[in-house]
Write a structure and sequence with these properties.
The chain has 175 residues and is of the alpha+beta class. It is 39% helix and 21% strand. Strands 3-4-5-6 form a 4-stranded antiparallel sheet, with helices on one face.
């Protein structure tokens, strides 16, 4: 018997609202039946594609009448975009979701939180590259590369722009 079954079988507390999805490479009829008898709602065979798992979860939630709870404390709306800080995703209805690197997400968050203001270049270098001053050539060039990437990722909203103020810093502005 699979150890996951033992864990659930010995758990005396049951909550009808909890959805249980078994993921196993052992898909014998006996194990599948045991999983369902123990209260499982679905069974997925390993290996699986992440999109397949997502589809199983969405179908289960639909059957249960559940809806996804969105924690909007980690979301920043600016222009036509929503930055999901926790998942490093830039959402836009027109262009869809864009996955950001952790550094891109953090830089964009910093610019969003200072919307309409210029953030000092030296502060960005200290925060993200631990640079002592803005004369660190490689850190400074790296910052420029990341800003260029972010500019390309927000092109779908013509009212937004990331401006560089020479000798001062960088800011996110509405046109």
């Amino acid at each position: 018997m699979n150890s996951a079954f033992v864990l659930y079988a010995n758990d005396s507390a049951q909550d009808e609202e909890v959805l249980i999805l078994f993921a196993s490479s052992n898909i014998s009829a006996k194990n599948v039946m045991t999983g369902y008898e123990l209260g499982g709602n679905s069974y997925i065979r390993k290996p699986f594609m992440p999109r397949e798992l997502d589809a199983h979860i969405k179908a289960l939630m639909k059957l249960k009448g559940s809806r996804r709870v969105i924690d909007d404390t980690n979301l920043i709306k600016f222009g036509t975009y929503i930055l999901d800080i926790e998942h490093c995703i830039l959402k836009n209805e027109k262009t869809g979701d864009v996955v950001l690197t952790t550094l891109e997400s953090s830089l964009l968050e910093t610019l969003c939180r200072s919307m309409g203001e210029t953030v000092k270049r030296v502060d960005l270098l200290k925060t993200f590259w631990n640079a002592k001053d803005d004369n660190k050539y490689y850190a400074s060039r790296s910052l420029d590369v990341f800003i260029t990437k972010l500019r390309k990722k927000i092109l779908a909203d013509p009212n937004l722009e990331i401006r560089t103020q020479r000798g001062v810093g960088i800011g996110l502005f509405l046109k």
